[in-house]
Amino acid sequence: MLGEVRRAACxxxxxxxxxxxxxxxxxxxxAVALAELGxxxxxxxxxxxxxxxxxxxxxxxxxxxxxxxxxxxxxxxLDDVTREAAAAAAGVPxxxxxALLAALRESYxxxxxxxxxxxxxxxxxxxxxxxxxxxxxxxPGFRVWIDGGTLCVLPGPPHEMQDMLRRELLPWLRSTCGxxxxxxxxxxxxxxxxxxxxxxxxxDWMARGATPLMGVTAHTGILKVTLLGKGESVxxxxxxxxxxxxxxxxxxxxxxxxxxxxRPGAAVVRQLAERGATLAVAESCTGGLVAELLxxxxxxxxxxxxxxxxxxxxxxxxxxxxxxxxxxxxxxVSREVALALAQGAAERSGADFALSITGVAGPTGGxxxxxxxxxxFGLWQAGRLEAxxxxxxxxxxxxxxxxxxxxxxxxxxxxxx
Length: 417
Prior knowledge:
By secondary structure, the protein is of the alpha/beta class. The chain has 14 helices and 19 strands.
């Protein structure tokens, strides 16, 4: 029995993580899952594939934390040394699990393949370890006791880690350790509101001593607002969060687009489908990104009528009927051209809404009058045309394009409510 576990640490293993080739997405997902059990993750550690470093980290962390969750380094290759490091930290040898080895061979036989000899490494575990089967991959996980703490090792690929976490580790923790304090999280996703403006309107909700705690992060125009309730029980924590959540919904009704799906495209597809309405898009600087964000959503075919990427001035004229004199007088990035693009998309598609985007994504092409980050939007609805100007931060090209795509979707969301 672990007893009542309140705090834990996460370790992510892999030279590729330290090199910056891939982000460590596993530790954050584990922390969120453990919070549901009232277990707070105090520390994230990222280490390379070096046995000595891992052995020291496992020993030190298990001496300080009752629970340490590690991901990665249990594949079949010689640079996967997590199992050896765990055994060394526990002071036990590795032993081969014959039943698991037979199961590995059987899985390859079912696919009419011979199991590579290197995969036998995945059947070795520290003596006394409890094996966690891998239902979606070949690398089993395991749990081993190290100097007062339990080290739980999961595979590194996120889809394998998530499956083993939900299928094996969390049920074991629920049955083995106390729940600790109740912790409940709830998130909101908002558009059309700068982080500073949100903070002003939220007021003392964001104070460090507030109950529940409120945090906000901003990324390319999307605000993620998280409430964290803590109490003697889950029920008490949930009551804190639900009371504040009702206030958030009322105060930020216009900006709030979801409480479960961070994708703005999902909100737009849902709203248009509820209205039985359709949308067409004419994109220049976003290069098809708005269409991508929409068609990423299952069911988009019910609402997304057509899309054009009219990047050159010539294509704006030939594909969408923009009067070339408008481009000559006002430039491609202008109110007039944005309106003409939206009208052309509406006329050619027959959609209920038509949206256009034209701007300067940079890093070159800006002028004092039309700097990098300037984007014009056109919106057609029931014969009425509107134009919107936005000057996004002059950051990198990809971010400006995503800022613009998110704002474009937000314009449709607001118009179709």
